Amino acid sequence: MSVDFQASLFEGSRVGVGPLAGRVQRTELSRGAWVDLLPGWFEGADQVFEDLVARVPWRAEKRPMYDGVVDVPRLLHTYGTGDPLPHPALVEAREALSAHYAPELGEPFVTAGCCYYRDGRDSVAWHGDDLGRGRTVDTMVAIVSFGSPRKLQLRPVGGQLAVSHALGHGDLVVMGGSCQRTWEHAVPKTARPVGPRISVQFRPRNVF
Ligand SMILES: O=C(O)CCC(=O)C(=O)O
Ligand SMILES: [Fe+2]
After folding, report:
1. Which atom of ligand 1 is found nearest the CA of 113?
2. How far apart are CA 175 and CA 36, in angstroms?
3. Nearest to 169 by CA among 194, 138, 147
4. Element (H or E) spanning 16, and its range?
5. Interior angle at CA 82, CA 77 and CA 84, nearest 5
6. Residue ranges of the chain with pLDDT lower than 50?
7. Regarding beta strands 33-38 and 172-177, do their DSSP bridges make them parallel or antiparallel, or are they unpaired?
8. Does domain 25-58+75-203 have CATH number 1.20.210.10?
9. Which atom of ligand 1 lies nearest, measured to the CA of 129?
10. Is this model's pTM higher than 0.90 or not?
11. Which of 57, 133, 143, 178 is within CB 3.0–4.6 Å of 182 for a Cys-Cys bond?
12. For the chain, what are the domain ranges?
């Protein structure tokens, strides 16, 4: 096999992220919250999706509800600070996000939460990522989406649904400013026949 042929093979199957600067579109919400969007940030998102399905040690969680326990309707795994990530493209993504947002955020993204929505019955209810510092200070949560598009909805705390983004294959969304404490987000269930979706959320230290 010639070197040229090998190079063209690699070119056609590049997996990784594109540039962020000048491409991310910011929408100011109210109360000091904002959302950045970059559709199609990932190249080779198909391959990343396949690899994540196979490599992430997905687990089902249960949580207490009334006098019993119910299944959390999605599969999960969180990579903590320093844990090796399951795909080099995720390392590339985390480094690119940390570099791009450093002037505003002042610290790197360090954890990667992974969620696997198997079909339209899997979902996450309205919440803010406010169990850690997100409850009291401005921060950022960057989400990359793979697989079937699903809606990410946003509303001000105590208010009506205000923003809905169909997050597609390889898309980036970053929630910033006061978003985790003044706004809530959700991925609603859908009766439409949808395929599986994986979401990877990059967060700074002690944001979850
Ligand atoms: O699936 C998503 O994009 C959102 C997940 C989310 O909000 C969370 O896990 O905190
Ligand atoms: Fe969240």
Report:
1. 9
2. 7
3. 147
4. strand 16-17
5. 60
6. 1-8
7. antiparallel
8. no
9. 10
10. yes
11. 178
12. 25-58+75-203
Residue with CA nearest ligand 1 atom 10: 129
What is the 52 CA–ligand 2 centroid distance (Å)?
A: 20
CA distance 189 to 126: 12
Instruction: Locate all alpha helices (DSSP H) within the chain, ordered by sequence.
Output: 3-12, 45-55, 88-105, 179-182
Q: Which residue has the tokens 């909805």?
A: 153
Q: Which two tokens stand for residue 147?
A: 């697989």
Which residues are near ligand 1 (CB < 6 Å)? 113, 115, 124, 129, 143, 152, 185, 187, 199, 201
pLDDT at 12: 59
Torsion angles phi and psi, residue 103, rounded to 5: -60, -35
Evaluate whether ipTM surpasses 0.85: yes
